[in-house]
Fold Serine hydrolase.
Amino acid sequence: MIHTKTIAVFLLSLFLIGQVQAQSADFNNKLKQVADRYEAVGLAIVVVKNGKPVYSNAIGYQDVEAKKPLTTDNLFRIASISKSFSSTAIMQLVEKGIISLDDDFGDLVGFPVRNPNFPDNKITLEMVLSHRSSINDKNGYFSLDVINPAKNKDWKQSYNSYAPGQGYEYCNLNFNMVGAVLERLTQVRFDNYIKQQILDPLQLAAGYNIDSLDKSRFAKLYVKENGKFEEQPSAYNPRSEEIKNYTLGESTPVFSPTGGMKISANDLAKYMLMHMNYGKVGKLQLLRKKSAKRMQKGLSEKEHYGLALLENDRLIPGEHMIGHTGSAYGLYSNMFFEPKQKFGFIVITNGCIPKTDSHDDILLSKEVIQLLYSEFIKK
């Protein structure tokens, strides 16, 4: 338990760690002022320009009670940015001709996936990846049984009243099912498959399986409740017993494909570079350019959401950004890039006052990104 007074003292002495290049006192003061305004417990930042990192900075604490400073190498559970890893893996299988984005999702996941209001309308893999499936989270998303007609009498509640492909609703269940599809197609456990196909080739020390990671690197997550910042230890629940009794294609939500990736700001920036360069990093071609562009193309009019990446024109006025956000357990994560001009930003906080604007964008994240843009890109 952390008292507000402790946070206030901490905010007067923010840590600036691991900078790639020295910045002016004016810039550092502005960054501190933004962090102070939203009581940021910690803030990890990486800026990419001309296709390479030009600035990294960690402010605040990995662990407040131990007064352990945060670094850009600490691991965060990045929440919904995790979805893009599953989509990337799916696109690799599409490239190999193993599946198609037009495939009936029910055939892939192993039980009927049909909106009862439109039983003759196929729900495709692409619809699920772009949140246009007409599926919702009303029954929850921690088990695939919630939408399986053979296992839940209330399965119909998992569907909206509009036809598949005709509306948009952000849905975590979509991506826990996508993770199960990856397992059924490859016969490899989800966390291991993402490691083999994406993390290892990019040399990222990250993953979905907490027991496979260095726990001393985890950045603790905090939520302010009743005037105090409280640690959220359940963010890093290893769920070891469930993993011991794992069934491929069914137990997948244990790893939370929808939000369970643990990765550092530095490594997330490397992953972002791959997408910024349309699937390529150095000599490594993880995705074909066509596939990468397909992921980045918004398909829904409401949110311009593609295949686990979305288009955003409001984050930085005058710039067309691609990326994703995440929020869970007090964490707020951001990965946004401009693939044509080759710049991008990673901004992650492990706790803050989550004030939002009229679009529900987190103001801390938005103000930090705009400040970074003015300092590193616009100049």
About this structure: The chain has one domain: 4-85+191-377. The two ends are 42 Å apart (CA to CA).
